[in-house]
Fold Dihydrodipicolinate synthase family protein.
Amino acid sequence: MNIDWHGVYPAITTKFNEDESLDLDTFRDHLRVQVEAGIHGIILAGSLGEASTLNREEKLQLLDTALDEVGDEIPVLLNIAESTQRDAIQLTKEAEVKGASGIMLLPPMQYKADKREVVSYFKAVAEATDLPILIYNNPVDYGIEVTLDMFEELIEYDNIQAVKESTRDLTNVTRMKNRFGDRIKILCGVDTLAMEAMVMGACGWVAGLVSAFPDETVAIYELVKAGRIEEAREIYRWFMPLLELDINSKLVQNIKLAEVATGVGTEHVRKPRLPLIGEELEHVQSVISESLEKRPKLPEIQQPVSSR
């Protein structure tokens, strides 16, 4: 499946049973809710998907399940966040064999690689696969920035096609457009900057709160792309207190509580994460409940066939 890198790509949560085993039935149900809301692709086993707690077999099990459930309807990407180049290449090759549409690729984990090492790592993975690659650029959380000069080296590989732009610097969208035009497709990776990034030319949104509020997330994207900025802005302003739950170290717990509130998931997380308690829990529940009370009626949106 080709990827055109436009639209809303949920970095979907991983569903667990109370004993921390994978809850694939709830995972399937959640995938179906997302697709029915009009999302454009799915990313498995990312940070929000608790990648650091998943072993290789579980990541591939999630991929098999997602491909079985929705693989013919939308692109299904597997996140590659490994500590060694060898492991990254192995998992990428396994994902390709199983039928993944593409991968999201992070710099090496644990070791803080320098620019030369990061470029070499990305090139090695790109050379090992024909899958389309979405580079994840998040220096705030991972301590490594993929600079424009680094992208200049990477674009010699046709399958390095897009970036999840999470630098928190909105001007980076314009810098990338000025330097590379449409060669590198830009998807905003920060919920609280998504509308601004799309107005400035980003192609889409790798989203977090979409897991609980897919209709609103898709509506904002479609309205912005249709030039209906005022309508999108009204929804976005309502959404902002919820979106701020994503830029938090407890984003997984926060978003899973939102999924419970909207009836599309459970709050089960895998240790070392623990369910929220005390003032933290009260604050998140308050944000969610107040937002649900004011949940807006969405306007009619004509979704073009090409956007699905």
